[in-house]
Amino acid sequence: MDAQAATQANVDNLRELLRNASVIQASQYFNGQPVQLVATPPDHKLGQVLTRYIAMVLLTCNELRIVFKVHFNPEQIRAYRQSRGASAEDLTDKQLIDFMKELSNQMGGRVCRIFDAHQIAIGMSVPLCTRGIYEIYADYQAKSGAITKFGDFWRLDGPFETIYCSCFVEIMGKDDFSNIKAADEVAEEGELDFL
User: Between the CA atoms of 172, 21, 116 and 57, what dihedral angle is there, to the nearest 10 degrees?
Assistant: First the structure.
């Protein structure tokens, strides 16, 4: 496989891994309810201001940097939480932002666990939240060379109505990420390893 094909295999697999991890984790976070992936949301594009808030985590190691974002409006999350019987103090904008920061934290944590299962240690930031308008400053321009850069954008539909996810990835070096897959850890729960 030539260098360009290897780079494209890395990009394609990382794109699929991040999308799948977001679907699996969102389903678990929202009480096991089904979550659908819309790979190419119509009428929207990467870098567009989509919502009032963005929760995000930064994932880094020597060979890889990922900015993972969850775009949301508090009203839709409030409606979901109300339907689940949340108390009034859990429905303030601050609590809803914390709720979504935790979702981004769990999505990032799942990505870290996936890489850890392949003996690649990735560090993760604390979850951050910013206003959605700041998306206009994001630079998702793709680049190939010594450092490969790319962005991705998808939508999740579920009990929360619609949230958007985006990421910006930088691959530094020639490491092979093309065989790393997102596994659903629920299937593995309950198994014990005895030493």
Answer: 60
Other CB atoms within 10 Å distance of the CB of residue 187: 8
Closest by alpha carbon to 111, among 154, 72, 150, 167?
A: 167
Q: What are phi and psi of 69, to 5 degrees?
A: -120, 145
Instruction: Give the integer Cα–Cα distance in Å for 178 and 172.
Output: 14
pTM of the model: 0.88
The interaxial angle of helices 3-29 and 93-116, nearest 10 deg, is: 130
Residue pLDDT, tens place only, 138-155: 888 899 888 999 999 999
**Rounded to whole angstroms, how far apart are CA atoms 166 and 132?**
12
94-119 b/e with 16+ CB inside 10 Å = b? ebbbebbbebbbbbbbbbbebbeeee
Is the pLDDT assigned to residue 30 strictly greater than 80?
Answer: yes
Rg (CA), the chain: 17
CA distances in angstroms from 86 to 77, 79, 92, 103, listed in the order given: 11, 10, 11, 17
Greater pLDDT, 1 or 58: 58
| Cα–Cα distance, 4 to 11 (Å, whole number) | 11
Model pLDDT for residues 146-186, shown as the tens digit of each residue: 899 999 999 999 999 999 999 999 999 888 888 888 765 55
